[in-house]
UniProtKB/TrEMBL annotation:
Organism: Hyaloscypha variabilis (strain UAMH 11265 / GT02V1 / F) (Meliniomyces variabilis)
Record InterPro entries: FAD-bd, FAD/NAD-bd_sf, TetX_monooxygenase
Entry superkingdom: Eukaryota
Keyword presence, Nucleotide-binding: no
Ranges for domain FAD-binding: 6-339
Gene3D superfamilies: FAD/NAD(P)-binding domain
Protein's name according to its UniProt entry: FAD/NAD(P)-binding domain-containing protein
GO molecular function annotations of the record: FAD binding; monooxygenase activity
Keywords in alphabetical order: FAD, Flavoprotein, Monooxygenase, Oxidoreductase
GO biological process per UniProt: response to antibiotic
């Protein structure tokens, strides 16, 4: 009996971890190579919502949905929408819970990224992840086509990989094997701001943002805040500006007056409370440029290598679908590989042939889904930075609320 194919996943984000869990459930050996030195190496970011037919479905197939629901925060779905002048256009925090449910829970409950990652990490077999393995390069084996040799920054190498999965994010080292496309600047720079433990240090801020998210959308600018399960509030003061704006605008982002200058120069006509969110988020400040890959990116399947998540279809965060799409990718790829592994036909063919057939099926579906979500994200980018963005978002929520109330009224009448 020939040994099982060697599967290497680059990157221990939600997509790569989900894929590894799903493959291990079907006795397919896999190794994840992660550049970070440990799971505590860096802040994993803020909170995200998992959709029933994407992230939640992947967790269900992985046997992890109960653990997710144990840590998820349905109240995090609450939205507060504001106009730049401080008017509140919508506020879920003053309403009873009304959003649609799935399996008895809120449809898209929030979970902190670090908690989701811990759930996935703890589900894997010991030794699955090799930490501190920053990928430097990939070479196809000179003698055996479809096998790959990996070189890492620590001087080590991994030879003869049968399936290489790039789950290594925006600046993927695996992507050049299948496409020359590179991320480009999406026209938005967001200043990430944190206020930690707000219930103790700044109760006003916690109450103002509410249980979930607070948004202000306006022409060329936006303010987006999220309540974290850790008790922190993470905010983004985002501005539509050229790529070098953060370096050339004259604001020293490490200086003591950075927040004041940001408010005075770009949010001076905003309501006092919106300004206060920026000024009082004093714990962390990080300029972040938004990057993306072309909408509709595609490539011809290359034997033995594929991509998922941001490595395959980097999008801006303005539709909130990135992690969900990555986890849907992982589920689809796992199903394609498992189907070929278990089929009668597969047992008559070589591993490399089966892997290629699986990748062709996966990439056809994945790239179609990616284009659909990237299109949605582009629409979100335009709406978030338009003069009527807040009204449009509030109107959409109002429409959903009215529909739910109508259904509730019909049910109470016995229809």
């Amino acid at each position: 009996m020939s040994p099982p194919p060697k599967v290497a996943i680059i990157g221990a984000g939600p997509g790569g971890l989900t894929l590894a869990r799903l493959l291990q459930q079907h006795s397919i050996p896999v190794t994840i190579y992660e550049a970070e030195t440990s799971r505590q190496a860096r802040n994993q970011g803020g909170t995200l919502d998992l959709h029933p037919r994407a992230g939640q479905l992947a967790l269900k197939e992985a046997g992890l949905l109960p653990e997710f629901l144990k840590h998820a925060r349905p109240e995090g779905e609450a939205s507060k929408i504001m106009k730049y002048d401080g008017r509140v256009l919508w506020d879920d925090n003053v309403l009873p819970p009304w959003r649609p449910t799935a399996e008895g829970e809120q449809e898209r409950p929030e979970i902190d990224r670090v908690v989701l990652r811990d759930i996935l990490l703890d589900s894997l077999l010991p030794g699955t992840i090799q930490w501190g393995k920053k990928l430097l390069g990939v070479q196809e084996d000179e003698k055996i086509k479809g096998k790959y040799n990996l070189s890492f920054a620590d001087g080590s190498m991994e030879m003869g990989v049968d399936l290489l999965v790039g789950a290594d994010g925006a600046w993927s080292k695996v992507r050049p094997l299948v496409t020359p496309e590179k991320p480009f600047y999406a026209g938005i720079t967001a200043i990430e701001l944190w206020a930690l433990d707000v219930d103790k240090t700044n109760p006003w801020l916690g109450k103002f943002v509410g249980q979930g998210s607070m948004f202000m959308f306006d022409e060329g600018r936006a303010l987006m805040c999220q309540r974290q399960g850790s008790g922190a509030v993470r905010s983004y003061a985002a501005i539509k500006r050229p790529e070098n704006w953060a370096e050339e605008c004259g604001i020293d982002w490490e200086g003591p007056d950075a927040r004041e200058r940001l408010v005075n120069e770009y949010f001076a006509d905003c309501g006092a409370d919106l300004q206060r969110v920026i000024l009082e988020s004093k714990d962390v400040l990080i300029p972040r440029k938004c990057w993306m890959l072309p909408v509709g990116i595609s490539w011809k399947t290359r034997p033995g290598v594929t991509l998922l998540g941001d490595a395959a279809h980097l999008m801006t965060p303005f539709a909130g679908v990135g992690v969900n799409v990555a986890m849907a990718d992982a589920l689809e790829l796992a199903k394609a590989l498992i189907a070929r592994k278990d089929s009668v036909t597969a047992k008559l063919l070589s591993d490399s042939k089966n892997i290629t057939i699986a990748l062709e099926a996966y990439e056809k579906s994945m790239l179609k889904r990616a284009e659909e979500n990237a299109t949605k994200t582009m629409h979100g980018l335009k709406g978030h930075f338009s003069a009527t963005g807040s009204e449009e978002r509030a109107g959409k929520i109002q429409k959903g609320y009215d529909m739910m109330m109508a259904k509730k009224a019909e049910k109470e009448k016995g229809f």
